[in-house]
């Protein structure tokens, strides 16, 4: 034990391979600590950079939809992370952010439809729980351009995908699009 300091000094003398290995390991740990600090600073969904949102999307298995802004994507990831699924607010949030007029009707057993008792006032006997979303005409009788039609179709598709992501297990979603989007 008394000779250990002398032995270590001899191994770690200037120009030795052991000293180079030690320095390389120290440098690697410094890089890893810097990367971890950068990732930790980018973990809040509301203030995350695009790379931070990408990491959240991978973790939550949720990709950015076509035409979705950075803020919309962050809000959607936040809603998923906070568990705003399987309730009326989560569905309305998923539909409202795409800016299309809609009417939502739910059918099924009132006691088993949603975890939070989300159901229609009417008691209609259907074999499975169903959610019917009827989208309104986004053009209100005006003649749209092909670009407007494509944009509205994309927003409707994104809204339907979002609702399917948020809906409860065992609930069938039926979307009815207006003739102008078909």
Order of helices and strands: HHHHHEEHE
- Average predicted local confidence, pLDDT: 76
Helix content: 40-55%
Number of strands: 3
| Largest β-sheet summary | 3 strands, mixed
Taking Cα atoms only, what radius of gyration do you get, to the nearest Å? 27 Å
β content, as a range?
Answer: 5-15%
Low-confidence stretches: 112-123
Strand order of the largest sheet: 1-2-3
Principal-axes geometry comes out as elongated
> How far apart, in Å, are the first and last alpha carbons?
84 Å
Structural class: mainly alpha
Number of helices: 6
Concise summary:
With 182 residues, this protein is mainly alpha-helical. The chain has helices spanning 4-11, 17-41, 50-60, 70-81, 88-96, 146-166, and strands at 102-107, 129-135, 171-176.
Structural summary, described in words:
The structure is a single chain. This protein is mainly alpha-helical. It has helices spanning 4-11, 17-41, 50-60, 70-81, 88-96, 146-166; strands at residues 102-107, 129-135, 171-176. Strands 1-2-3 form a three-stranded mixed β-sheet, with helices on one face. It is elongated, with a radius of gyration of 27 Å.
């Amino acid at each position: 034990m008394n000779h250990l300091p002398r032995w270590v000094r001899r191994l770690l003398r200037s120009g030795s391979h052991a000293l180079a290995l030690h320095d390389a390991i120290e440098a690697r740990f410094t890089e890893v600590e810097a990367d971890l600090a950068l990732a930790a600073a980018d973990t809040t969904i509301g203030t995350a950079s695009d790379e931070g949102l990408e990491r959240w999307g991978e973790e939550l298995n949720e990709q950015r939809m076509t035409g979705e802004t950075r803020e919309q994507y962050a809000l959607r990831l936040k809603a998923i992370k906070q568990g705003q699924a399987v309730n009326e607010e989560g569905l309305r949030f998923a539909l409202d952010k795409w800016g299309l007029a809609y009417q939502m009707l739910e059918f099924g057993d009132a006691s088993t439809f949603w975890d939070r008792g989300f159901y229609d006032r009417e008691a209609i006997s259907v074999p499975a729980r169903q959610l019917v979303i009827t989208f309104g005409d986004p053009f209100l009788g005006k003649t749209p351009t092909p670009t407007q039609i494509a944009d509205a179709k994309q927003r409707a598709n994104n809204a339907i995908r979002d609702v399917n992501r948020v809906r409860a297990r065992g609930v069938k979603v039926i979307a009815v699009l207006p003739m102008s989007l078909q």
